[in-house]
UniProtKB/TrEMBL annotation:
It comes from the Bacteria. The chain holds residues 1 to 483 of 737 of the full protein. This is Bifunctional alpha,alpha-trehalose-phosphate synthase (UDP-forming)/trehalose-phosphatase. In the C-terminal section; belongs to the trehalose phosphatase family. Belongs to the glycosyltransferase 20 family.
Length: 483
């Protein structure tokens, strides 16, 4: 029977070693959390990195890593520290990530990063080829593996290959600055179907293909000498039921079942019943606009001092890519901003910001989603932003207000949210005030519409649509051969 082979840089499970024992935790990030439900339900295997450098896995535990991964239908690709430096911290996160998010000043062009990226992409492709059988569908994910589709195609010319990009694809004017632009496009074009979250990213990609490689592009099809490649947009959804159910269960918790975090949140609600909680939740990444968010919050408190002691920003920043200098600088900047704002506004009984720099278990995320009256998400650029969707899915009584950056892919489908420009602090401050004053009926009306859409276009539907479209590319092939 044919199967689906999923390939992404990271597996949905992160393996660590504590006291000579393997510890398995779920990976953080939209790709892993979103795709996990599709993987669980379907007949698929998932190939990716376990999250640890190969040298740090003691010899006697290597087999255990394989077994742990296998229990979850996963296959771990081992990467050495050097490969992680050049491929992951290097080309993926110092070249492609900043460039594709329009942070050109952060983009580095380094030959060694590029050479390592090619080598590691080859490693992933070889792992896929080891498990590939005729009739299987191969689904390659994200910007860390842009060359993999063509590397597979070279050895399995008839394979059915899909590629999905989870981050923005930049405009031609930005993409063309990449020294390896031709190789990158040729790598992706090894796929039969290429998917993006939004129509804009799709258009930018098609424009780069036609202007850089001069291939014929008709509407959303690219004609290569030997094949037709289809490009389309598939906005990724969430496992709606999982979040809805978790929220409903959360409300059934007795006092003893409650987490320490929830008790603190409850205490806040009890002691300051007319104060509101604003949620800020992301990986600590410069694309997420966390520093802007803090500055806008400060601007809000300066502009509307009547909200002092009536509001608290609960900010969870999950450590991410901490070997990259920009992430280290951002961490320092955020520490300073939080300290400064808390110092400036705190009273003896109140601090405006609660700041957590750590990863939290799923239950705590649900505590935060369900307890916060407002979610303030202000990315400067974001491929999608699943946190926005998760927040809405957990609002089972339909209250709550989402303030979302118009630069997030999710904004295209979430018109009923309060959309803001993350660089306009005055607009953010005014929108926060609007959120504070929004009647419950209006919140319910907006959220019901958002929820209906999110429920319908869940991650399951997203994956089904992509796979259906991928299967349809077989017809394209036959049509091409008949030409
Ligand atoms: P990105 O993929 O850029 O990290 P998204 O908002 O699309 O951004 O996805 C983030 C995902 O990571 C969400 O599914 C969210 O639930 C998950 N997540 C965020 N913070 C945590 C955390 N502290 N612990 C576990 N999962 C988290
Ligand atoms: O969604 C974008 C993304 O880069 C995913 O590819 C990745 O899984 C996630 O964010 C988290 O990043 P990282 O794997 O670098 O920790």
């Amino acid at each position: 029977m044919s199967k689906t082979i999923i390939i992404s840089n990271r597996l949905p499970l992160q393996i660590n070693i504590e006291n000579d024992q393997l510890e398995v935790t779920p990976s953080v990030g939209g790709l892993a959390t979103g795709l996990k439900s599709f993987h669980k339900e379907g007949d698929s295997i998932w190939i990716g990195w376990s999250g640890m450098p190969e040298e740090e896995i003691p010899g006697h535990l290597i087999e255990d890593v394989k077994v742990k991964a296998k229990e979850e239908d996963c296959i771990a690709v081992n990467l050495t520290s050097e490969e992680i430096d050049g491929f992951y911290y290097g080309f993926s996160n110092r070249t492609v990530w900043p460039l594709f998010h329009y942070f050109m000043e952060y983009t580095e062009s380094d030959d060694w990063y590029w050479e390592t990226y090619k080598k590691v992409n080859q490693k992933y492709a070889e792992e896929v080829l080891k498990h590939y059988e005729e009739g299987d569908h191969i689904w390659v994910h994200d910007y860390q593996l842009l060359l993999v589709p063509n590397m597979i195609r070279e050895h399995a010319p008839d394979a059915i290959i899909g590629f999905f990009n989870h981050i923005p694809f930049p405009s031609y004017e930005v993409f063309r600055t990449l020294p390896w632009r031709e190789e990158v496009l040729e790598g992706v074009l090894g796929a039969d179907l290429i998917g993006f979250h939004t129509y804009d990213y799709e258009r930018h990609f098609l424009s780069s293909v036609s202007r850089i490689l001069r291939h014929q592009v008709d509407f959303n099809e690219i004609t290569l000498p030997d094949r037709i490649v289809k490009v389309d947009s598939f906005p990724m959804g969430i496992d709606y039921e999982k979040f809805e159910k978790a929220a409903l269960n959360h409300f059934k918790n007795t006092a003893e079942d409650k987490s320490e975090l929830q008790r603190r949140l409850d205490h806040h609600l009890k002691t300051t019943p007319d104060a509101k909680l604003i949620l800020s939740l992301d990986r600590l990444d410069y694309t997420k606009g966390i520093a802007n968010r803090l500055r806008a919050f400060e601007f809000f408190l300066d502009k509307y001092p009547e909200f002092i002691e009536k509001v608290r920003l609960v900010m969870l920043a999950v450590p991410s890519r901490s070997n990259v200098p920009q992430y280290q600088r951002l961490k320092r900047e955020i520490d300073e901003l939080v300290g400064r704002i808390n110092g400036k506004f705190s009273t003896v009984s109140w601090t405006p910001i609660w700041y957590f720099y750590r990863s939290m278990p799923f239950e705590n995320l649900v505590d935060l989603y369900t307890s916060c009256d407002i979610a303030l998400l202000t990315p400067i650029r974001d491929g999608m932003n699943l946190v926005a969707k998760e927040y809405i899915a957990t609002r089972t009584d339909h209250t709550g207000i989402l303030i979302l950056s118009e630069m997030a892919g999710a904004a295209h489908e979430m018109n009923e949210a309060l959309l803001i420009n993350p660089n306009n602090f005055d607009q953010i401050a005014r929108t926060l005030k609007q959120a504070f004053e929004m009647p419950k009926e209006e919140q319910i009306e907006r959220n019901k519409m958002l929820q209906k859409r999110l429920k319908r276009y869940s991650v399951e539907k997203w994956a089904q649509d992509f796979m259906k479209s991928l299967r349809n590319t077989e017809d394209n092939r036959q049509a091409f051969e008949a030409m």
